[in-house]
User: What shape does this take?
Amino acid sequence: MKILETIANVHAHSRGRSGRSILVPTMGALHRGHVELVRAAREHAGADGEVAVSIFVNPLQFEPGSDLEKYPRPETRDEEACRNAGVNLLFRPAANEMYAVDRSVVVDETTLSQTMEGASRPGHFRGVCTVVAKLFNLLAPDAAVFGEKDYQQLAIVRRMVRDLDFPIEIIGVPTVREADGLALSSRNQYLSATERTDATVLSRALRDAKERVKAGETSTTKLISLATKTITREQSARIDYISIVDGETLEPLEVARSNARMLLAVFIGDTRLIDNISLT
Ligand code: AMP
Assistant: This one.
């Protein structure tokens, strides 16, 4: 596995490459969810193609006063995880390598990013789009893999690629979960033992909504109110948002029709968790 840490070296590498390359952008603290993205990347790259993983805790997508400083950075373990998963190239730049002190150009998505995560975390998607565009320019992949776990991010990246003509295919991978339904996340390690138990309420509420739609319920107001009840029953849970939207445009729906998706963000104690499910 090749490890690169500078822009000059990654540019040189990308220019000299011949075969297919698939990029998996991450912030590290790798878990089974990330490994699943790497597996999908390998499928698309082929045995001779290149699977590239980037690990970069992007300061631009954390709001001031958020968990940037305490975000886990287990460098050696991540490197091992990449080796074990058969990654060919690991790109892990330092923050000052990625951003000039007087940087002044950003990528802003102006519609899909206004609600849900974008409303709760101002500037978050500007940070995401900017860094993903930079990674696309640096690594020039044929395709890039993103998790459905961050569903709004996936939709926004697809929109950015369409609107800015990046010649890159975007591949979405279904959310990887613990046996009890909790979506894997680097932030799960912040949870205490009781919070970890309470945290299953996110996936329970989502699965319950899906069951109700299957049984004929179509009112999104009703579905959201039932999910709200389920979640507020957990002592440590505080809802940030619960939305039912069109899976592509992210526009709120009144009726749960085909392509409807429920997305939610819930604080479990001090830890903010997100999850989502297709309702149809
Ligand atoms: P992160 O390192 O949290 O920024 O995530 C990097 C990529 O992994 C993103 O595309 C995430 O959507 C994806 N990801 C994170 N957790 C999961 C999961 N549990 N299942 C599938 N993909 C995930």
DSSP finds ten helices and nine strands in the chain. The mean pLDDT is 97. The beta strands are 2-4, 21-26, 50-55, 89-91, 143-147, 169-173, 237-246, 260-268, 271-278. The pocket of adenosine monophosphate is lined by residues 26-27, 33-34, 36-37, 146-147, 149-150, 173, 175-176, 183-186 (CB under 6 Å).
